[in-house]
Design a protein that fits this description.
Layout (H helix, E strand, L loop, with lengths): L1 E9 L16 H12 L8 E2 L8 E11 L5 H11 L4 E9 L9 E11 L13 E2 L6 H11 L1 E4 L15 E12 L2 E8 L6 H13 L7 H8 L14 E8 L3
Parallel strand pairs: 3-10, 5-6
Antiparallel strand pairs: 1-3, 1-4, 2-3, 5-9, 5-10, 7-8, 8-9
Length: about 250
């Protein structure tokens, strides 16, 4: 039995999220259908680094699955991509040892979030960036990002619907914001992320960019550990799972 690790890209616009759901088109469902076809009707279950919501995209999602077949890595890639629709692509296939797990072996995840910050919407970006036509002070947002970095309890910045048991302490190694033309790009790298955490952080950072909050308010929000202290969870369309990192071994 071989264990294969795959790096997967997908456009989340046409999927009801990653996780298999009966009667809905999901990333996992489509991938497992392709695996079933390769395995001549045998069910193959995959494990992912994490789930993404409806409308969320991935540049570097990672999955693994076990197969009784011994096939060269490039042939796996070719076979799967031949069977997959145009909105999913297997970027890379690598055979790994049995102790590798797409979810439990993760040491760092990176997410990007894109905001279209112009007076007029761009219809071609509506599925790929969050439209926000208000003036922003990017320097204030950058200052606020520094308060998010480090090890904190991120309860305030996680969905009240989160099913995680126990503490919500995570380490953010990097949080940044830059604007190029009308596009604002947020980048977050961390040990792990809570449900809706990136989308809630960006919502608060946009409030700071508008002057509705101050950068140092982040300190108090983290201390309060209360989701009710912050506003809405913004749109999933601007969110991309960018990269998942594992120990080099």
């Amino acid at each position: 039995m071989a264990r294969l690790k795959c790096v997967v890209k997908y456009d989340g616009s046409g999927f009801s999220g990653f996780q298999v759901q009966p009667q809905y088109r999901t990333v996992q469902g489509v991938l497992e259908s392709a695996l079933k076809e390769v395995h001549k009707g045998s069910e193959i279950r995959l494990q992912a680094s994490g789930r993404t919501d409806t409308g969320v995209h991935a540049v570097g999602q990672v999955i693994h699955f076990d197969s009784p077949y011994k096939i060269p890595e490039n042939n796996w890639k070719r076979a799967l991509n031949t069977l997959l629709p145009d909105d999913i692509y297997i970027q890379e296939v690598t055979e790994v040892t049995k102790d590798f797990h797409a979810r439990y072996s993760v040491v760092e995840k990176e997410y990007h979030y894109y905001v279209w910050n112009a007076e007029e919407p761009d219809v071609f970006k509506r599925n790929y960036a969050y439209y926000f036509p208000y003036e922003l002070n990017v320097e204030k947002i950058q200052e606020a990002c520094r308060y998010l970095e480090g090890t904190h309890d991120f309860t305030t910045f996680s969905s009240a619907k989160s099913t995680i048991k126990g503490e919500k302490v995570r380490t953010l190694y990097h949080a940044s914001c830059k604007k190029q033309g009308d596009e604002v790009e947020f980048i977050f790298r961390g040990s792990g992320f809570l449900y809706n955490m990136v989308r809630i952080m960006v919502s608060v950072l946009l409030d700071i960019g508008q002057g509705r909050r101050n950068p140092e308010d982040i300190i108090g929000l983290l201390e309060k550990k209360d989701r009710q202290q912050v506003g809405k969870t913004i749109s999933p369309q601007g969110l991309y799972l960018w990269n998942v990192r594992y120990n080099e071994k």
